[in-house]
Amino acid sequence: MAYVFSEFSQPSVAVCNTSSRFPVRRIYLVGRNYAAHAREMGHDPDREKPFFFQKPSDAVLPSGSDFPYPPLSKNVHHEIELVVAMKSGGRDIGVDAALTHVFGYAVGIDITRRDLQQEMKLKGRPWEAGKSFDCSAPITDIVPVSICGHPEQGRVWLKVNEELRQDGDVSQLIWSVPEIISILSTLFRIEAGDLIFTGTPAGVGPITVGDKIAGGVAGVAEIEISVAGDK
Ligand code: MN
What is the pTM of this model? Predict the structure, then answer.
């Protein structure tokens, strides 16, 4: 079978301690999953059902890269997040079985064109323009469960030019990783290769060209990117 032009390369993320890579199928993200962040965005952090959005799989950008400042925004924000990497899946996965489908964990930054996201929210439009642009998902190597276990606690932090901006803990997740997987699987069939960004703690804020961003989840990994000019 021939394609009408050469096929795309499969987006993937390195797996630590191996030369094998994790092929990325879909990137799901949870909105507002830490109470203090929900409050800072003007929402009531009750346990209303989590909601999800997606980024394209080729939005992944390895830690250590230059992040190209995206076009058409004057207010680009960092959101540091624990990321779950799935090795299998299904539909209607029970909370008790959810973790058996997890390959490993990573640290990601859900980079957001906040001004465009706010405009879309106000107009009742989809969030893609704010969330799903090129290179909007910087991510570390994936750490297999055999190395990091299933993190239930651990500091989630982010610094911009050495200034601490975000400082939370995985234990503050409103919806836990097993609950997120279970609920997500009622909406979509989860498959091997799916990544799930689990939400960000309070302290989101703007980044500008020249900034050095560093962050991490204790017990998982640390991420670093430099903000470069738009290309
Ligand atoms: Mn986020």
Answer: 0.97
